[in-house]
Amino acid sequence: MADEIFVSGLNVWFDKNQALKNVNITIPKNEITAIIGPSGCGKSTFIRCINRMNDLVQKCRIEGKIEVDGKNIYDPDVDVVEIRKRIGMVFQKPNPFPKSIFENIAYAPRIHGKEEPTMDLTKEPKHSKFSKKEVVELVEWSLRRAALWEEVKDRMEKSAYDLSGGQQQRLCIARTLAVKPEIILFDEPCSALDPIATAKIEDLLVDLKKDFTVVIVTHNMQQAARVADKTAFFYLGELIEFGETEGIFENPMQKLTEQYITGRMG
Amino acid sequence: MRRKTKERLFFLLFRGCALVVGLALLIIVGYIVFLGIGTLSWEFLTQFPKQRFTEGGIFPAIMGTLYLMALVMIIAVPIGVFTAVYISEYQGSSRFAGWLRVVVNNLAGVPSIVYGLLGLGMLVIFFGWGFSLIASAMTLAFLVLPLIITASREAIQAVPSSLREASLALGTTKWQTIRHHVLPYSLPGILTGVILSLSRAAGETAPILLTGVVLTKSILPQDIWDTFMAMPFQLYALATQTVFEKTKDFQYGTALVLLIMVVLMNLAAIIIRNRYREKYKW
How many CB atoms lie within 10 A of CB B269? Predict the structure, then answer.
């Protein structure tokens, strides 16, 4: 299978603290890659480098390369806005906009318009506006894809804040899907949810990998074992081990990995 | 037992202080209303003063104050809000932003008469604007800018950063995020700050005294370069420069109208804040 994200020599500093140390990893297309590790190991920092969210953090310095489709997203000629359209992100705490359910999802497509497909990350692609009907269809498609349609189809004009936490998180996933990204990053998407809502999101993740490349940060090892094809273990800013999920959990090569997954550390 | 006595004592002290504050407000407002209510009439609100402020009304002073408010708003709101956006969204913790913050905080403490002097020296004389509505409005705009900036900054910073991240992660630009999310969500807070600042400006006397207000004028100001009448100055002048007894009704009438105007503005601010607090909660 083709590789989607190719990371080499990634170093990240926040002011004088080095958060990531020489990370090299290749994330495959249309699979779920889980990032696990104890708190403060740099797993969130790592995932936030992939859509350049760390650009927003002051005194954050990034070295190294992250190639997506063979193009280094940190090259100076790359438009960060285009990056984030192609690489969506779902956050730890559900963060819907204080708008209606419909508006939450319709927002980004309306802003972006229809995009002429292009592989050239350096140029702003051509756009045309979505018609009203197209927006409605896109919203429905996104909600169906996020397994939320049946629950909200009769109350699209209600505030997103009327939804439960799990529904809000699926709404955020639908909102990301509406932009039609290629890669979706999940930063501990279930940490604020109850087990039932978590199970729904996990089913959804497995379903999404048919069309998207999924990278998920999780502090829940069982979750990684349940959904991920590949698992990466980070410790103190270093990538300790990366491989097939089964291998990592049943037969880890590194002592640190073994200690972590057997609960003797972290 | 001693602990309980202490408890009771301090509770009594707190309650006493609160009572004094409430009473003071009640007395001031009650006094003005009691003495001013008799003067209030349609005529008082819509006519020019006659017979050296013993008959007629305060129409030109009301209009002057309204004109002034409108101009102050036009000048100070965009500058204030955009400065707040710049400080909080673009300059996070840079040295310039920190310096700007200190400047804004200190500007808020400058006495209003000093602003008046600045308006007189710089706008009226040096810029040659003369005694005018625009010179006064600009001076008052300087005065309320720090208030508007501080209120707007607080409202903007109250928007959770998770919403900014949500928007940016969808591939919007920083400006789109500010325009579509940060500003709309912080608008109620900004509006509240703006209205409170304007009501503060409405009551200021010293800055306009030095830059453009006059006691009598037979017509409304014709343009922004014209002089104008205004309620707070009219009050000051009548109370200090005429025989108090003769214009007493006029003074309390003016005070009451000014008070009602300011109270209404503050009420509007409270209503806006409460309504939107319901709408935008996260």
Answer: 20
Summarised one tens digit per residue, pLDDT across range A26-72 is 999 999 999 999 988 899 999 999 999 988 887 889 999 999 988 89
**Phi first, then psi: what are they for A252, rounded to 5°?**
-65, 145
Q: What is the pLDDT of residue A127?
A: 73
pLDDT at A125 (0 to 100): 65
User: Residue A73: pLDDT above 50?
Assistant: yes
What does the pLDDT look like over B27-44, one tens digit per residue? 999 999 999 999 999 999
Q: Which helix (H) or strand (E) holds A28?
A: strand A17-28
Nearest CB to B169 within list A53, A58, A93: A53
CA distance B187 to B81: 10
A111 interfaces chain B, CB cutoff of 8 Å:
yes
Helices marked H in A124-242: 132-145, 149-152, 165-177, 195-208, 221-227
* Residue environment code for A90-99, b if the CB has 16+ CB neighbours within 10 A, otherwise e: bbbbbbbbbb
Q: What distance in Å separates the CA atoms of residue A171 and residue A95, rounded to the nearest whole number?
A: 9
State chain A's mean pLDDT as an integer.
90
Question: Domain residues of chain B, as ranges?
Answer: 59-279
What's chain B's Rg over C-alpha atoms?
23
End-to-end CA distance of chain B: 46
Residue of B nearest to A98 (CA): B280
CATH number of A3-261: 3.40.50.300
Listed by start position, the domains of chain A span 3-261
Q: What is the pLDDT of residues B174-231, one digit of tens each?
A: 999 999 999 999 998 999 999 999 999 999 999 999 999 999 898 999 999 999 999 9
- Contact: A81, B172; criterion CB under 8 Å: yes
> How many whole angstroms separate alpha carbon B274 and alpha carbon A155?
25
Q: Chain A residue with minimal CA distance to B281?
A: A98
Say whether B187 sits in a helix, a strand or coil. Answer: helix
Cα–Cα distance, B268 to B266 (Å, whole number):
5
Task: Of A262, A266, A261, give the one whose Cα is nearest residue A243.
Answer: A261
User: Per CATH, the architecture of B59-279 is what?
Assistant: Orthogonal Bundle (1.10)
Considering the entire predicted model, what is its pTM?
Answer: 0.84
Mutating which of B88, B165, B170, B276 best tests the A interface, going by the most A Cβ atoms within 10 A? B170
Q: To which residue do tokens 């559900």 refer? A: A94
Distance CA B166, CA B182 (A): 12
Check B180 against A89: CB less than 8 A apart: no
